[in-house]
Amino acid sequence: MSKTPAYKRILLKLSGEALMGDDSYGINRSTIEGIINEVRAVLDLGVQVAIVIGGGNIFRGVAPGAAGMDRATADYMGMLATVMNALALQDAFRQIGISSRVQSALLIQQVAEPYIRGKAIRYLEDGKVVIFAAGTGNPFFTTDTAAALRGSEIDADIVLKATKVDGIYTDDPKKNPEAQRYQSITFDEAIGRNLKVMDATAFTLCRDQNLNISVFSIFKPGALLRVVQGEDEGTLVHA
Q1: How far is CA 193 from CA 4, 147, 163, in A?
Q2: Which string of DSSP letters, residue by residue, matches 43-54?
Q3: What is the pTM of this model?
Q4: Of 90, 147, 171, 176, whose CB has the highest number of CB atoms within 10 Å?
Q5: What homologous superfamily is domain 9-238 in, according to CATH?
Q6: Torsional sign, CA 158, 25, 82, 222
């Protein structure tokens, strides 16, 4: 029998690189299917799921051509890459019978709805997955900041930051086998120890809004489900 989830509404932050799998860039089909199935297990508990997706997997392929480019222009290109990833996620959800909506911070009405907070919340209440694309719609802000912002706007219970590492460690676990995983840590402790959980803007926004962050590995089978059920998985950053 399924456990009662610890959270009713979550904001899942996926990096674009998470969609690459072992490829050098682009979208790896088996990887995206694995992520979708992890999300489905959470949806089956009745948890409402919103997603903010990055664009590094696509922008990486054009990054050499962006060398020397105006920063704002490069950031807008990155936002468009997130829209492409959001559409790929939406299609993957569709193929397994899960209804989802893409809302973009940039107006691209032929392929995605504009971001409207009230609509997003209504979709979530109806059991649909909402995928937020194009970051905040502004250059100079990361998709981490978009996750903190959207999580705050939709009254999410927690921001789940999916990474390649299963939590926050005292040191780089790949270089130092003695590194210890933090089960939980406060925002102030993370700042004091200079732990790079999220970029400073995103991290400060979460702290100010009392919006906890859980850092976990999206590539560890069942990890997302265990986080949502409140088990000892990843690292919880809290007020």
Answers
A1: 34, 23, 20
A2: HTTT-EEEEEE-
A3: 0.94
A4: 147
A5: Acetylglutamate kinase-like (3.40.1160.10)
A6: negative
pLDDT band per the 50, 70, 90 thresholds, residue 60: low
From residue 97, how far is each of 64, 155, 225 by CA, in Å? 38, 26, 19
Q: Mean pLDDT for the chain?
A: 93
Count the helix, strand and coil residues of the chain and give each as a percent rounded to the nearest 5: 40, 20, 40
With residue 11 as reference, give the H or E element that holds it: strand 9-14
Q: What pLDDT, on the 0 to 100 scale, is given for residue 113?
A: 98
Q: Cα–Cα distance between 58 and 120 in angstroms, integer?
A: 26
Whole-angstrom CA distances from 199 to 125, 185, 205, 206 are 30, 17, 10, 11
Q: Which has more pLDDT, 99 or 173?
A: 99
pLDDT-derived band at 65, boundaries 50, 70, 90: low
Rg (CA), the chain: 17
Q: Where are the alpha helices (DSSP H) in 111-164?
A: 117-125, 143-153
- What type of residue sits at position 165? V
Complete edge-to-edge strand list for the sheet that includes strand 9-14: 113-114, 100-104, 129-133, 48-53, 9-14, 158-163, 213-217, 235-238, 184-186
- Distance between CA atoms of 109 and 201, rounded to whole angstroms? 29
Place of tokens 């409402």: 48
C-alpha distances in angstroms, 200 versus 16, 161, 203? 20, 15, 5
Rounded Cα gap, residues 147 and 136, in angstroms = 9
Q: Provide CB contacts within 8 A for 193, sequence distance 6+.
A: 185
